[in-house]
Amino acid sequence: MGSRASTLLRDEELEEIKKETGCEFGQITRLYSRFTSLDKGENGTLREDQVNFRGFMRTLAHFRPIEDNEKSKDVNGPEPLNSRSNKLHFAFRLYDLDKDDKISRDELLQVLRMMVGVNISDEQLGSIADRTIQEADQDGDSAISFTEFVKVLEKVDVEQKMSIRFLH
Amino acid sequence: MWKQLKKHRSSSSASSASCGESLSEEELARILEQVEDKKKLIATMRSKPWPMARKLAELREAQEFVEKYEGALGKGKGKRLYACRMLMAKKWAKFKRDFDNFKTQCIPWEMKIKDIESHFGSSVASYFIFLRWMYGVNLVLFGLIFGLVIIPEVLMGMPYGSIPRKTVPRAEEEKAMDFSVLWDFEGYIKYSALFYGYYNNQRTIGWLRYRLPMAYFMVGVSVFGYSLMIVIRSMASNTQGSTSEGENDNFTFSFKMFTSWDYLIGNSETADSKYASITTSFKESIVDEQESNKEENVHLTRFLRVLANFLIICCLCGSGYLIYFVVKRSQEFSKMQNISWYERNEVEIVMSLLGMFCPPLFETIAALENYHPRIGLKWQLGRIFALFLGNLYTFLLALMDDVHLKVKTTNFPPIPSAHHISFLKYNTFLVYNVHELKKFWKVDRPSCSFGSDVPASRKSVVAPLSDVDVHSPQRKFPTVPIALFCSCLFICYLADCELSKEFMRLTVSDMLVTYITILLGDFLRACFVRFMNYCWCWDLEAGFPSYAEFDISGNVLGLIFNQGMIWMGSFYAPGLVGINVLRLLTSMYFQCWAVMSSNVPHERVFKASRSNNFYMGLLLLVLFLSLLPVAYTIMSLPPSFDCGPFSGKNRMYDVIQETIENDFPTFLGKIFAFLANPGLIIPAILLMFLAIYYLNSVSKSLSRSNAQLRKKIQALREIEKSHKSVKGRATARDSEETANGNSKNSTQLQLPKEGTMRHSASQSQTLDQKAQGPEASSSAGKAVPPASQHLPISRSPGARTGSGQARPQAHPWRSASGKSAQRPRH
Lengths: 168, 826
Hints:
In chain A, 55% of the residues lie in helices and 2% in strands. Chain A has 168 residues and is mainly alpha-helical. Chain B: It is found in: Membrane.
């Protein structure tokens, strides 16, 4: 840990990041050097979203693979950032554009438009959105809440698909 | 802090006391306690509210103390052992971690494959992963053969030139070093350890008394055994991953909505293709929906389907007869003197023409059947396979007549050179043809599936057969199964010493054809399109030739079938596996370069998820097909008289018999004889059949109960859904009414709701959860209603499933309170 990058990252911050995300020291320093190489303006944040290193780490921590021995460690403490529920929450927030904890029909339409471009007509997109809500919605409020989202994806192996193995 | 300093001083006093002799009881106990304290301190250091510098100092001190005294805790003589054990355990943990890291870094070509994945999607990358896996398997096989057969022969066997089978005959000697001769696997290469014919049948060789024939035989058997084991293991691990996916009928559109984007894409061109593929996949689902709602006139459909099948069977019989006729004619031609080029090659021409024109014919006939596009495609594949197999059988049948005739007239097993040359010519001709066909079909094939709904995309779009790209399998299918099957049969007639050469030649020629096709078809085409675009009338990039796409299934099938060839040939040519390793290595680098430089991402970028087991299953089938002829020759044919390690024996497996008699003690021989008794083997086989039957029925019953449970869950879900929507409306109505006569306190809103809803068990359960819901949902951000405190908390186990229901209850409540806030308070 005598590289140039680590001198910019204080030990206290390292400790805090390690506690919050559960990553190892080596991983954090490596990711910090990647972060600095991405950060071309050298102002401590990534270009468009003004994400600083803490935010960067917090987002990446969601993608840490789940290890078995972790489950027994800390039953009373707060849930680690890479648990299945938090991963799904991360995915949910991608689609919930106005952050009201519901995915409404309009948000679905916006996301569909982004995914598909102009190749499908508006009317068909509308029916796709309606059908999606019809499949997933269980309480009849014409929107998809987080629990309904979880139920839709309960058969998907999220732990494996939303995991990136960082090199140690 | 004072307590820490005191402990420090007492620990240092303990150290001075222990310098001399062994410790007394109380000192031991005290040290033990201190060590435990230090350990606890280390574990909880993070949460202590001290500044960082102090934490680090304490940490270092505690670690030193623990290290020093942990060894002292063992009593007397055991103390050293205890220290050693702790040390070993720590070192072992560290070693395991480092080794894991090392293994991850050692995976070859990982960066290249990741690069390709980001440009072309995960399906193209899966081809390269498969190639890498195949390379690993071949490397292991090569190690086995090289280490156990070739090296002993080279080191300890009789040198070149000592016996006739190891020497180039004088007649050939001048030409033996010529490149053209070497390229053909004649000359010095033929008389080397790479080929079966070189090995001597001496029972033991060298000062180690290495049993070479026995080793050769066992290595041949274990090559197949290892390959079988590793293919099945790979298939099993694939299925384990996919069973959790299960039935996705319920949420088709939601799945497409939420999980279709591939977040690993890092290139804008690929992203554009991904748009197109998502569009296509949505349209496919729409078509599926339409198909399932369609009404059918059952009788007309059935009649049309029967008619279509009848027509197709007529076509198949017609093509079989045509081939038979043409082969007979060619045999007559071969007796004549002056024959034209056409008459010489008539068979190959007819077979290729049949292969080119029958499949589109099948497709037009199949339009009568009016199947769902996916099912129609499966039928089409099956029919094409039947066409090619049928052609093959008739071809061989026609040839067999001739060969049988020859066998009868002459007394030794013939080398039907005319026929096997024509077979090889046919094979290479087909290989060239196939690559031609690929390009022809990809551009002009009409899209038969969606009708007017689908806008014409640049290339034709066919309904997906899960994730498999269906264009190419029907074209690659013909060539190498034909080659394999032919080799199966010709093995019986060709001498084993000749066979090895043929396999080598075939492998090398196939490799060359592949490379040349890639160079010409992909690279030169890309160069042409790029550079001629400036001076051409139409846009070359968007229009006719454009850039090639990477042909995944063609390449994977080629890889699989070539591996089949290698397996078949490895018994007869030990050097073949080495050549294959080289070939896979060069192929990896060459294709990585070719893909990145001259291919564009697919129009339909699909995920490589479920098709992996399809290719593994095909690999397994090919393994069996290539095992059969080798097993047949080992068991039934006598080996050649003058070449190979088994020469002079009656059957090849006699070498095992010999080894058991001469090298093992006699009681082992008796045991083996006992085990080989058919009276023992047949009951064992019966037992295995019974075990298979039992396991099969167990697994069927398990999957049935699985399906029933799933249905039950679904039914429950439907009931809940309808229940919730009804109740949602009911509570909204109720809360509107009760909001009228209410005062400010929000909890009083709840009480009337409690009153109306207490009459059913499930509703009271949801009531608990509703009350606990606002507590549980942190994002709701509401104050906990005091009324919830007197509700029974014993229902909490149900809260988990019902917590989802808590939320919806909150909503009408929220809307109700909103409404109440709007009404003027009187």
